[in-house]
UniProtKB/TrEMBL annotation:
Native source species: Triangularia verruculosa
PANTHER family according to UniProt: BIS(5'-ADENOSYL)-TRIPHOSPHATASE
Cofactor(s), names only, from the UniProt record: Mn(2+)
GO MF, one example: nucleotide binding
Reactions performed catalytically: P(1),P(3)-bis(5'-adenosyl) triphosphate + H2O = AMP + ADP + 2 H(+)
EC number from the UniProt entry: 3.6.1.29
Descriptive protein name: Bis(5'-adenosyl)-triphosphatase
Lineage: Eukaryota, Fungi, Dikarya, Ascomycota, Pezizomycotina
Alphabetical keyword list: Hydrolase, Nucleotide-binding
Marked site (Important for induction of apoptosis) residue numbers: 135
Residues annotated as binding substrate: 37, 100, 106-109, 115
Motif Histidine triad motif: positions: 111-115
Annotated HIT domain residues: 10-126
Active site: 113
Broadest EC class assigned to this enzyme: hydrolase
């Protein structure tokens, strides 16, 4: 059993903010986890979070902070392998890496999370119709990671308070659990292949 698989057997108690998300996790480290996104802005848009539900980036210990960013790098390498041309190096595409740190910045789940969004050459790169509006989409309803979770479990969702107006996108719906579990399973396989090659 690989170390990734071994770690993932202990994920049943992990939460993203108040939400249990065990089956959406594809990577677990001593201090962090990575999960697929309920409402991805682009293909491959995932989140990396500290295991402890810190609300702000400044609350992480040095060990947690180092592990969080090392995990972001590992996730980038994995996503590059899947989405970028052979041999799948991160330099064969680009990434948006973002943290909305606090409600006024648009954070809707009170748990630090790093958005990792691959930008695929000729498909989702800047200038291919996706450009800088990605940042507006992150601050708008499309980027409201917690909104659909709140809709499922609570009566009133928090409203992002970033500088951009909230924009409802009626056609962009939250994905089903089966779709998210399938994506997480794919990413786990790629990570296990990477471990075997190390």
């Amino acid at each position: 059993m690989s170390t990734t698989t071994a770690r993932l057997t202990h994920q049943s108690e992990i939460h993203f903010g108040p939400y249990p998300i065990a089956t959406q996790i594809f990577l677990l480290t001593p201090f962090s986890f990575a999960l697929v996104n309920l409402k991805p802005l682009l293909p491959g848009h995932v989140l990396v979070c500290p295991l402890k539900p810190h609300k702000r980036l400044t609350s992480l210990s040095p060990e947690e902070l180092l592990d969080l960013w090392k995990t972001v790098q590992k996730v980038q390498t994995m996503l590059a392998r899947h989405y970028f041309p052979s041999p799948g190096l991160p330099e064969q595409g680009s990434f948006n890496i973002a943290v909305q740190d606090g409600a006024e910045a648009g954070q809707t789940v009170p748990h630090v999370h790093v958005h990792v969004i691959p930008r695929i050459r000729g498909v989702t790169q800047k200038g291919d119709g996706v450009g800088d509006e990605l940042y507006e989409r992150m601050a708008a309803e499309e980027g409201n990671v917690g909104g659909a979770l709140w809709d499922r479990e609570m009566a009133k969702r928090p409203v992002g308070q970033g500088r951009f107006d909230r924009i409802e996108d009626k056609e962009r719906m939250a994905r089903g659990l089966g779709d998210m579990e399938a994506e997480a399973g794919l990413y786990k396989q790629i990570l296990e292949e990477m471990e075997r090659e190390e």
